[in-house]
């Protein structure tokens, strides 16, 4: 029996410059923030980040880790637009932005999970998604209808990072909140080896059903290479029902992000130490 | 008083967009559209499915900002199911539009050029897929020439001409049902599907709407006044929005 537990730093040490990294969650909801903070502590650069973006994307952009961003939106939910993302778009600090319809992003991950080169859809046709992404191609139905459809290319990942509520040491994992989002697809779209799952609590396999019914067990361990026990790991995003979004913290984050001096101070205070330092600082904040 | 009743007229005009929709998912982005779906379901369109804007279909008249225990849940609609439902066509969404043009093209992505835009907005979000697959309406809280433009900077949601060019299937399933603003309700019920003034809100003149629109608007000879809420609707609106959040979203 494989015990897949490791620390954030051990997980992130397996990433390399230029890799394509998919990040689960949605906006400012159940983001693997402790793994993102671990990336910020490393010298990684030139990443391609694929995400239903929130502060994960904002922090990585602000830290200069991103060469290419694949997204449908980057939002803090209660604050509609991620401030670092807005700054990166408006200043053009990232070489390559791939903005897709939200459903196309799912289709790209699903294609990768099924090992297909693409999946067809109507989403995107006629819109400027096609003009701002000149590499997107269409495909014609071989049947009577002959319809032209968008061929969403597989978004195959080198690594996936997700945060769930519970998992066992082998990586069977459980979501207990309202939505799984696309975390299962992010894991399935990634090549074996660097599929990392953090969770609020690691429990014994036989105790998983004490937490929720069998259909909350949506992550099969065959799609997980490493398990990080990370209580508070999604902070400051939501991790229902363990905790909600830390709205006050998010407001401070967003305010600091709008000003270079304030940002330097904020990031020095919150991001210069270890994950344990971060969690301790959040606790002592009250 | 006039100020407060304007938001009620806007919600009713937005709810009217869902009249006749039957048993589909009525989805709203923003407080006025969310209230519109709940008002329609709670009154004249009882078969609509409406959500808590998170992941559940709710069967009761859920107030904005109500605690989770007040929800009567009749279904689960995580984002994955939203995409399935919308690609399957069983949905009508009312979204926002930072810019909208005469043919119903909508922009929520960015202002200025795509590369290094003057202002980054929400991004494409679900607009391309929504408009290619099912009925879409828009809520514009500040009717002005900045929002109603000759040509949008980026097309997120398809208007009629783009939909026609995108092929016969999309052309057949595409519909921009209604655009509701703080001044008027508009539609595309013209021979060439250009935007038409449908009704003006009480106290607003046709000229004011024409002036606040940055393209040539089709104006019928007799423009009706948007209807006020009925007594029953007013009572329901009071329950759906006890904090009066709708008033904050409407520019007087």
Report what the structure shows:
The complex is a heterodimer of chains A (286) and B (252). Helices cover 31% and strands 21% of the residues of chain A. Chain A is an alpha/beta fold. Chain A folds into two domains: 8-101 and 156-205 and 215-278, Glutaconate Coenzyme A-transferase (3-Layer(aba) Sandwich), CATH 3.40.1080; 119-153, no CATH class. In chain A, strands 1, 2, 3, 4, 8, 9, 10 and 11 form an eight-stranded mixed beta sheet that branches. Chain A has a three-stranded antiparallel beta sheet with strand order 5-7-6. Chain B has 252 residues and is α/β, with parallel strands linked by helices. Chain B has a single domain (2-249), classed as 3-Layer(aba) Sandwich (Glutaconate Coenzyme A-transferase), CATH 3.40.1080.10. Chain B contains nine helices and 14 strands. Chain B has helices spanning 2-16, 31-42, 79-87, 127-133, 160-165, 168-173, 206-211, 231-240, 245-249; strands at residues 25-28, 50-51, 56-58, 73-76, 91-96, 99-100, 106-107, 110-111, 119-120, 135-140, 175-181, 184-187, 196-200, 224-225. In chain B, the strands form four sheets. In chain B, strands 1-5-10-11-12-13-14 form a seven-stranded mixed beta sheet, with helices on both faces. Chain B has a three-stranded antiparallel beta sheet with strand order 2-3-4. A two-stranded antiparallel sheet of chain B has the order 6-7. In chain B, helix 1 (2-16) crosses helix 2 (31-42) and helix 2 crosses helix 8 (231-240). The longest helix of chain B has 15 residues, at 2-16. Classes of the chains: A alpha/beta (286), B alpha/beta (252). Chains A and B meet through strand 3, helix 4, helix 5 and helix 6 of A and helix 3, strand 9, helix 4 and helix 5 of B.
């Amino acid at each position: 029996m494989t015990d897949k537990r490791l620390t954030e730093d051990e997980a992130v040490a397996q990433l390399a410059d230029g890799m394509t990294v998919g990040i689960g969650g949605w906006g400012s909801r159940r983001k693997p923030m402790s793994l993102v903070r671990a990336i910020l502590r490393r010298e990684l650069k030139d990443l391609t980040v694929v995400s239903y973006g929130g502060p994960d994307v904002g922090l990585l952009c602000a830290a200069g880790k991103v060469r290419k961003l694949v997204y449908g939106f980057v939002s803090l939910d209660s604050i509609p637009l991620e401030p670092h993302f807005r700054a990166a778009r408006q200043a053009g600090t990232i070489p390559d932005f791939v903005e897709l319809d939200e459903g196309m992003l799912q289709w790209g991950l699903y294609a990768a999970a099924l090992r297909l080169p693409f999946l067809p859809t109507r989403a995107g046709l006629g819109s400027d998604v096609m003009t701002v992404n000149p590499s997107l191609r269409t495909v014609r139905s071989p049947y009577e209808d002959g319809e032209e459809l968008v061929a969403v290319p597989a978004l195959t990942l080198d690594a996936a990072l997700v945060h769930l509520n519970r998992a066992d040491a082998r990586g069977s994992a459980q979501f207990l909140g309202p939505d799984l989002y696309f975390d299962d697809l992010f894991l399935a779209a990634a090549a074996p080896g660097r599929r990392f799952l953090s969770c609020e609590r690691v429990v014994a396999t036989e105790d998983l059903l004490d937490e929720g019914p069998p259909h909350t067990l949506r992550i099969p361990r065959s799609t997980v290479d490493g398990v990080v026990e990370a209580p508070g790991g999604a902070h400051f995003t939501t991790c229902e029902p363990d905790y909600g979004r830390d709205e006050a913290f998010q407001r401070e984050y967003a305010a600091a992000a709008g000003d270079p001096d304030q940002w330097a101070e904020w990031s020095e205070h919150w991001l210069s130490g270890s994950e344990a330092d971060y969690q301790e600082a959040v606790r002592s904040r009250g | 008083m006039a100020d407060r009743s304007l938001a009620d007229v806007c919600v009713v005009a937005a709810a009217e967009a869902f009249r006749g929709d039957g048993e589909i998912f009525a989805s709203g982005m923003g407080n006025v559209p969310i209230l519109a779906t709940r008002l329609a379901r709670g009154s004249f369109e009882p078969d609509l499915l409406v959500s808590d804007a998170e992941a559940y279909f709710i069967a009761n008249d859920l107030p904005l900002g109500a605690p989770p225990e007040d929800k009567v849940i009749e279904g689960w609609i995580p984002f994955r199911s939203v995409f399935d439902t919308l690609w399957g066509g069983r949905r009508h969404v009312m979204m926002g539009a930072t810019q909208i043009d005469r043919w119903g093209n909508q922009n929520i992505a960015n202002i200025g050029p795509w590369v290094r835009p003057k202002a980054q907005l929400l991004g494409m979000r679900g607009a391309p897929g929504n408009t290619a697959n099912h009925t879409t309406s828009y809520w514009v809280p500040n009717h002005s020439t900045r929002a109603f433009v000759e040509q949008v900077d980026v097309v997120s949601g398809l208007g009629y001409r783009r939909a026609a060019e995108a092929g016969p299937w999309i052309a057949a399933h595409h519909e921009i049902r209604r655009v509701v603003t703080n001044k008027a309700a508009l539609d595309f019920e013209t021979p060439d599907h250009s935007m038409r003034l449908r009704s003006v809100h009480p106290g607003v003149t046709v000229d004011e709407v024409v002036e606040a629109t940055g393209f040539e608007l089709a104006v019928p000879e007799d423009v009706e006044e948007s209807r006020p809420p009925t007594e029953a609707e007013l009572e329901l609106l009071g329950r759906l929005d006890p904090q009066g959040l709708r008033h904050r979203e409407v520019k007087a």
